[in-house]
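Page 42, continued from yesterday. The earlier attempt failed because a stray header line got pasted into the input along with the sequence. Redoing it now with the clean sequence only.
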Amino acid sequence: MGVHDRIKQLVGEDFTTLQNAKIILLGVGGVGSFCLDCLYRSGVKNITIVDFDTYDDSNQNRQMWSELHEGEVKVEALKKHYPELSIIKKRIDEQWILDFNFEPYDLVLDAIDDRNAKLALAQKCYKKLISSFGGAKRMDPTKVQVDDIWKSYGDKFGSKIRYELKKRGFQKKYKVVFSSEEANIKEKGSFMGVTATFGLIMCAEAMKKIRKKSC
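This time it went through. Structure tokens are written below.
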């Protein structure tokens, strides 16, 4: 069997649509790296990844390929495993979001932690945005789900995002991946079973949106 035969059996003619989709993924840590791997193995190859960070040993409990590339720039290391990627080594902050041209992309996937950048991204790209809230501090992957921003709950970071968006008069809908599980600790401890689930759900939602566009 060929590399993508199994996914082709599931999605049929939509596989060509997946191959032709143009996606930008912001952040390739514990959530973003699993989303990237899932998309790439499913035939989505036209992906631009954006991150500024380098791998260190604290990443190895939850980030794809991190144990092989300690000290290396993440986007450059990941291109070795996914050669068709386009990479941008940049710190993603509010100003970068405001300045960057997202127009060429079919989907914008947000796996970043910066609150102001997330808010700017929502206001600028809500029509084609899927955003991840916090996956840290939790142990139960069965509590991870996807819904529109205004139906999300159980996450203090998500609550702050909703509050700030309302304050700015933003009322549009876009999809978010979130956990309804209460945080277990105050520190930023993390379990790959949860963070990877965030990334895989983001991938599945992205594929769903891409396939819908072909209908």
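Notes: The first strand starts at residue 23 and ends at 26.
Reminder to self: strip header lines before submitting.
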